[in-house]
Amino acid sequence: MKTCLIVDDSRVVRKVASRIVRDLGFSVSEASDGGEALKMCRVSMPDAVILDWNMPVMNGIDFVKALRREDGGKTPRVVFCSIENDAEHIRQALSSGADEFIMKPFDADILESKFAEVGLI
Amino acid sequence: MQDNIFNALADLALNASGQSVLPSKAYLIEARLAGIARREGFGSLDDLIHCLKSRQNPVLRAEVAAALLSRDTWFFRETAVLDGLVGTALPERLAASPSGHLRIWCAGGSTGQEAYSLSMLLEDETLPGLSGAKIEILSTDICKQATEKARRGTFGHYEVQRGLSIQRLLKHFTRLDSGDWQASEALRARISLHAHNLLEPADGLGKFDIIVCRNVLSGMARSARTRVVETLANQLAPGGLVMLADGETLYGLTDRLEPAGGLRGSWVAAGTANAKASAA
After folding, report:
1. What are A19-47's pLDDT values in tens digits?
2. Residue B236 C-alpha from the chain's centroid
3. Hey, of A94, A101, A112, which one would you mutate to test binding to chain B, going by the most B CBs within 10 A of its CB?
4. Residue B278's pLDDT is what?
5. B230 falls in which pLDDT band (50, 70, 90)?
6. With contact defined as beta carbons under 8 Å apart, do A32 and A55 qualify?
7. B positions 73-92 inside 8 Å of A (CB)
8. Is A103 within 8 Å of chain B by CB?
9. Is the pLDDT of residue B280 over 60?
10. Strand pairing of B208-212 and B101-107?
11. For labelling, which of B50, B109, B159, B230 has a CA lying 20 to 30 Å from the CA of B171?
12. Dihedral pair phi/psi, residue B268, rounded to 5°
């Protein structure tokens, strides 16, 4: 079973995303900031990461940059998921190492479409 | 929804667009029509239906009929079909076209996502077989509002995130202050839009090298399907191709078209598929 790490400081967003991703057949784990997520990735690299931008401790941009420097850190497909949805922010996320970008709010159709775009399903 | 109201609406949809409305969609229809009924000052859906029956109001009737249609569409729906069209069908047609001018018709194109997807593929793919070609895309829909929206080339937050990669969004669209995204001038320049009811003749639209009619026939009553397929066959240029969605077929609807073979979901004029295969 493929694994997905959902990184967001909002418990509600994590809960909604978890339900959708589980329905897509993934095993899900959650982290509430980039620092916690990085520690989890060092133990076990997930297949997919859904990543918020603004979080305490370590934001999404710093996380994805750090992740890509880790051993095996280029493997996970990273899908940013943020309210920072103007073109400049999106470009910054992609140039930092993200593979796709979801503009919040999102629904199951969007998440499924984006996972398909990056070959996760 | 009461049976008599549902039946009246189902009759309206059948007569106006040939669509079969399923009882299981009654709640959706109720939600879609509630806004129209409120705006027009009707106390209930019943009053709206009564008005449509008793008074001539073609504009309101058309709006209600359009609201009964499924508008669900997204970018790059069944990508393999579109890839086959751009990568195989168009180069073959171009090789047989002395003018280098090809016409594609997205019949029942809703709010334009299919036409814009094709336009993006034509922008992005540098296929030697298509160099120098002038390719025109016409998208038509029965709903004037959908056609107008397609003409603007402006899509909302949810629409641009269904089927469209973020790279393509950034490359081909500009974010407006409203938060919507507008297709580039280059994409829009290739596409023309017309309101057209597929139950009506389409002689005025001209002939087409490729007619894409996906997920339209499957929602129609059989009598309407037969009529629409006749129209598609009439508008197909010699050697042209009709493309359907996965799972759709023209068997039993017409003797004028037959499966093309090779490209899934594609149909050609009867008697030409084997000749084409032999030539290949």
Report:
1. 999 999 999 999 999 999 999 999 999 99
2. 16
3. A101
4. 60
5. very high
6. yes
7. 74
8. yes
9. no
10. parallel
11. B109
12. -130, 175
Helices vs strands, H then E, count in chain B: 12, 10
Neighbouring-strand partners of residue A28: A4
pLDDT of B251 > 80? The answer is yes
Contact B161 A110 (CB under 8 A): yes
Contact A103 B175 (CB under 8 A): no
In b/e form, how buried is each residue of A88-106, taking b as 16+ CB within 10 angstroms? ebbeebbebbbbbbbbbeb
Please give the full DSSP string across B118-163, using - where no structure is assigned.
HHHHHHH---GGGTT-EEEEEEEES-HHHHHHHHHTEE-TTGGGSS
The reported pLDDT for the residue numbered B188 is 97
B262, pLDDT greater than 90: no
Distances (CA, A) of B212 to B89, B186, B266, B267: 12, 21, 9, 10
Give the residue on A whose Cα is nearest the Cα of B179.
A86
Cβ-Cβ pairs closer than 8 A, A with B, add up to 35
Nearest Cα to Cα of residue B227 among B107, B118, B114: B107
**Average pLDDT, stretch B15-28?**
89
Q: How many CB atoms lie within 10 A of CB B50?
A: 14
Q: Percent of chain B beyond pLDDT 90? A: 72
Q: What is the pLDDT of residue B72?
A: 86
What's the rounded Cα separation, in Å, for the pair B45 and B134?
48
Contact A101 B74 (CB under 8 A): no
Whether A106 has its CB under 8 Å from any CB of chain B: the answer is yes
> Helix, strand, or coil here: B77?
coil
User: Are A90 and B165 inside 8 Å of each other by CB?
Assistant: no
Interchain CB contact of B278 with A (< 8 Å): no
Read off the pTM. Answer: 0.92
* Residues 6+ away with beta carbon under 8 Å from A88: none
